[in-house]
Write a structure and sequence with these properties.
Length: 206
């Protein structure tokens, strides 16, 4: 789960250090993780979490709102400027941690299904990526259709540092290589390389 260590100077909202641990993308699991983290910050820490980690309670409401917004489709509009800042920081940190996980550590467990010999990505999902830069989870019918989710993250990164770090680590290229290694359908490989091309064009434009 996501554990936060915050170092704050009085009256200031910077000096943020985020230590992220492995997090899965299953919607029901991320919802539970968000609720658990919010419960910790709400003063009801589960024993194991409380014993294993130190969570500073300064700016508790801001941190809680940021955690609750870290895995939503978009950040709630009703946050104030300070709350929005922390929500953006944590969303970026979460996505960079996910890229590290899928490229360097754990690949198969991020996918919902066991079958990696599935058919191609549907035209609907491809259009969502190309036009909306966002994937509707309810439209996903196989493992291949999850692939664009991870490329679409780049359109939801808020800070230049995050984009620079992503490019320096070559995460998109590494993920593409792992896709081609694990999926047997040649059409999926072609579609993934097309998605990578669109992603790199976007990164090169900013």
């Amino acid at each position: 789960m996501l554990i936060l260590y915050l170092s704050l100077r009085e009256g200031q909202t910077y000096n943020v250090v985020i230590i992220a641990k492995r997090i899965h993308l299953f919607p029901y699991r991320t919802q539970k993780l968000s609720s658990l983290a919010a419960m910790v910050l709400g003063g009801q820490p589960p024993g194991r979490v409380a014993r294993s980690h130190v969570v500073f309670f300064l700016y508790k409401k801001i941190i809680k709102l940021a955690i609750l917004n870290h895995n939503k489709g978009k950040i709630d509009d009703n946050l104030n400027e300070e709350e929005m800042l922390y929500a953006k920081i944590i969303r970026d940190a979460d996505k960079l941690d996910i890229y590290y996980t899928i490229c360097e550590y754990d690949f198969e467990s991020i996918f919902w299904y066991q079958d990696f010999s599935c058919g191609p990505i549907s035209e609907e999902i491809m259009n969502q990526f190309s036009n909306d830069h966002f994937i509707n989870y309810s439209c996903i019918k196989n493992n291949a259709e999850q692939i664009p989710i991870f490329y679409a993250y780049i359109f939801d990164l808020y800070f230049d540092f995050s984009l620079k770090f992503l490019k320096e680590k070559h995460y998109l290229e590494k993920f593409t290589y792992r896709i081609c290694e694990n999926f047997t359908d040649n059409v999926v490989e072609t579609q993934t390389k097309q998605i990578l091309k669109i992603s790199n064009e976007f990164l090169d434009s900013i």
